[in-house]
Amino acid sequence: MELALNICGWIGSIMVVTGFFLVSNGKIEAQTYGFQVLNLIAAIFVGINAYYYGALPSVGINTVWFLIAISAIIRIQLKNKKGS
């Protein structure tokens, strides 16, 4: 179980860095589904890992990160509906 949670944490961390790299280098834009879903999944994975290890500040920040990603996805959906 611990191995699976460590893998989850590492995958989430890699996703965070990948998203940051892609946006920072102009490969993707922040207001896209791809970037926001990447952040959403990364927040879940890192948050689960942090919770397992009792790192409550990290759980808190990943919860906020998750909520920000959800709100961005909703905004993108609303914008796309208006444009249709």
Description:
With 84 residues, the protein is an all-alpha fold. The protein has one domain (2-83). 85% of the residues lie in helices and 0% in strands. The protein contains three helices and no strands. Helix 2 runs antiparallel to helix 3. The longest helix has 28 residues, at 56-83. The protein is elongated and about 45 Å long.
Please outline what is shown here.
With 84 residues, the protein is mainly alpha-helical. It contains 3 helices and no strands.
Shape: elongated
Order of helix and strand elements from N to C terminus: HHH
Structural class, by secondary structure, is mainly alpha
Largest sheet: none
Number of helices: 3
Rounded average pLDDT: 95
Q: In angstroms, what separates the terminal alpha carbons?
A: 46 Å
Proportion of residues in helical segments: over 70%
Strands, total number: 0
Strand content: under 5%
**Number of discrete domains:** 1
Please tell me how large the radius of gyration is: 14 Å
List low-pLDDT spans.
none
Name a few traits of the molecule.
elongated, 85% helix, 84 residues, mainly alpha, single chain
Question: Layout of SSEs?
Answer:
Layout lengths: L1 H23 L8 H20 L3 H28 L1
Helix pairs in contact: 1-2, 2-3
